[in-house]
Amino acid sequence: MDTRVRCYDCGATDDLRDRKRCNCGEPHWFDTDTRDFDWPDEGMGIWRYVDVLPVNEPVGLSRVSGNTPLHRNRGLESADGPRIHLKLEGLNPTGSFKDRGSAVGISYAVADGTTWVGTVSHGNMALSVAAHAASVDLECAVLVAEETPRERLELIGQHDPHLFRAIGSYGDLYEETLNLDVDIEFVNSDTPLRVAGQKTVAYEICEAFAPGAPDAIVLPVSSGGNASGIWKALRELETAELLDSSAMPRLYLVQAARCDPIAQSYRAGSAAVTAVDGEETIAVSIANEDPPSGTRALTAVRETGGAVLSIEDDEIRAAMRQLAEEAGLSVEPSSALVLSAIEELTRSDTLGADDDVVGILTGSGYKEQTTVDTAVRDLPIDDLERVLSGLVGGETDP
Amino acid sequence: MDTRVRCYDCGATDDLRDRKRCNCGEPHWFDTDTRDFDWPDEGMGIWRYVDVLPVNEPVGLSRVSGNTPLHRNRGLESADGPRIHLKLEGLNPTGSFKDRGSAVGISYAVADGTTWVGTVSHGNMALSVAAHAASVDLECAVLVAEETPRERLELIGQHDPHLFRAIGSYGDLYEETLNLDVDIEFVNSDTPLRVAGQKTVAYEICEAFAPGAPDAIVLPVSSGGNASGIWKALRELETAELLDSSAMPRLYLVQAARCDPIAQSYRAGSAAVTAVDGEETIAVSIANEDPPSGTRALTAVRETGGAVLSIEDDEIRAAMRQLAEEAGLSVEPSSALVLSAIEELTRSDTLGADDDVVGILTGSGYKEQTTVDTAVRDLPIDDLERVLSGLVGGETDP
């Protein structure tokens, strides 16, 4: 088990047990040496990359995460646009990318002898941590926001965690849980254990393109934890000489325009991300007004030559429809905006016909159904052949 | 493209385009020669087994199906019970095992120049066929039952198929669509194309155990199409000499006690399955009163030395809870009863500590949420450390 963590910014090192965030204020991640790493011959899911993970013994549901399809669907591509490869993270065991980080977090907790884990979330992460904890009989505390809808509580509740509705400032809770003098391993969205798991998606993507690399990776950003993990992976693969420094994929991060602190700071040319007062958006999973790894994500974008984009809710709805009607994919709004971003990057000639772009669709659309305008017609069974023949023959109302 | 189909019962052959059901009344399946088949070195999802599929060019979303995890979770096992390996079919692209058959059906339709596909379903199969058709821009007709709830229509409707509410006898519709003089390829639940796709789950299972084999495979049964596909695969692997005739896995099929025509016919020792008037059950996906491949499924059970079990709704609810709370898995009721069946087979000493049993969890629990009794407590953030310390320390109400 690794315990040494390092600050990406100032380079200071610490022990994970002492602190998850550097004295300088920026988040830590594991200090991973990849000089001898090479693409493995075998391995199950994310554990294919066990040599670069802080724990080497997967437990329970942790065994299942990762190895999601990288799916090219020509129906979404245009003649002058890039080749679009979609990473279907909704096919992780609890339907989102969060399972990668939970798998590492829970396996680490078991190896470390911890009996309690926790998380501050009322969405994909809460479900993922609760499911993984249940699979190995760990106690699990989930701290949800006061206004979390009943439907979502039941989704998380099926795995029987200790559910707490936090009364007070939910925004502060995230940081506070990392500094408690309580024996609970909080696997929040940008903590070192989670980032270690989340980075495996970039290992999978890069291995699929090896010895080449995609030109760009486009993903939603909320806390910045996932983007940090992907950036960490790219740096590690560069150290391992499996990615060429001159051909590093550019990272494009996407936010909902109604809540886009990282995009605003990017456009303003700021060195650090400032919190915003966001509006309500259909992209609930990524509506983070004060992202704890926002500055780290911004740094990742700048160092890889990418950008941060903001997408309006109407465009997100259109992207969901397009993914469902043209690619047969059902994803949550917070994933669909990746397609809007790829289209915007194509319109601005940032991406062109020579490019390979990977869009990370972070979560399934099945967990929280969106209302769809659905037309249904009555068909008297006695009239089956006539109606269907007319339909196939091109009649609009046979 | 293969077109020759054969009757498993009387051995008669036909062309798929002429008939999907034999003159003798039993359903056809593809006539597949596996004498030269061997485990492949590579291949994507179900297309790993392209040598035994009736079409060899995957299209659109079809590329993604299959290669689902086979997951052993010791938390579900008992000291005197079998090793339990769960096949997580809910991790197919539309969240159910149906994607395997849809992948073959849609790819075949495209290769055959068909522009219309259809299906008679208001559940997993409807969603799966609509999504696959959308991904390759095929027109798709979905015929749902009159009483299908709005929520489910919207789930299917997101892929924009032609949705028809069938007014009249829904039970007859299934057969009628197979005999229409209309240019629509109906990929219903026991048609040869679907069975050809569904069989790949058994190829995956057997390859995972090769050169050995699991002792038993336990799966839900509705139309009998999936069970038929699995039986077909076992026979094909026996022909290929990749399964030893003396070590064929036994097939155990499971129905909800409230609607169990195949189980009733099995217990009565009948040669054929008779339709029943079922009651309402929470296992909606498998409540089939008149299964079109019921007799074929019954034959599969008898020839492999298995059985058909009936599970009460209360036990199904308990199994769902157990899977969620002890394995971190969310599945639909129609899948959960597989665990109840494994427990029943363990209690009756049919399965013991020396056995490997594979349970096929056919569908995700996320598409139609079941109400869960969920306790949530208020936690004032100012009181965070005290409450959590008390909890970890064993206080029941800190």
Outline:
The structure is a homodimer of 398-residue chains. Chain A is α/β, with parallel strands linked by helices.
Describe the structure.
Two copies of one chain form a homodimer. Chain A is α/β, with parallel strands linked by helices. Chain A has a domain at 70-95 and 195-361: 3-Layer(aba) Sandwich (Rossmann fold), CATH 3.40.50. Helix content of chain A is 33%, strand content 17%. The first copy, chain A, has helices at 98-111, 124-135, 150-157, 170-178, 192-198, 200-209, 225-239, 261-268, 294-304, 313-327, 333-347, 384-392; strands at residues 4-7, 13-15, 28-30, 70-72, 83-88, 116-120, 139-145, 162-167, 185-186, 216-220, 250-256, 307-311, 356-361, 376-380. In chain A, the strands form three sheets. The first copy, chain A, has a six-stranded mixed sheet, with helices on both faces. The first copy, chain A, has a four-stranded parallel sheet with strand order 8-7-6-9, with helices on both faces. In chain A, strand 6, helix 2 and strand 7 form a beta-alpha-beta unit. In chain A, helix 1 runs parallel beside helix 2 and helix 7 (225-239) packs across helix 9 (294-304). The radius of gyration of chain A is 22 Å and the shape is globular. The first copy, chain A, starts with a strand and ends in a 6-residue tail after the last helix. The mean pLDDT of chain A is 95. At the A-B interface, helix 2, strand 7, helix 3, strand 8 and helix 4 of A face helix 2, strand 7, helix 3, strand 8 and helix 4 of B. Strand 8 (162-167) of chain A pairs parallel with strand 14 of chain B.
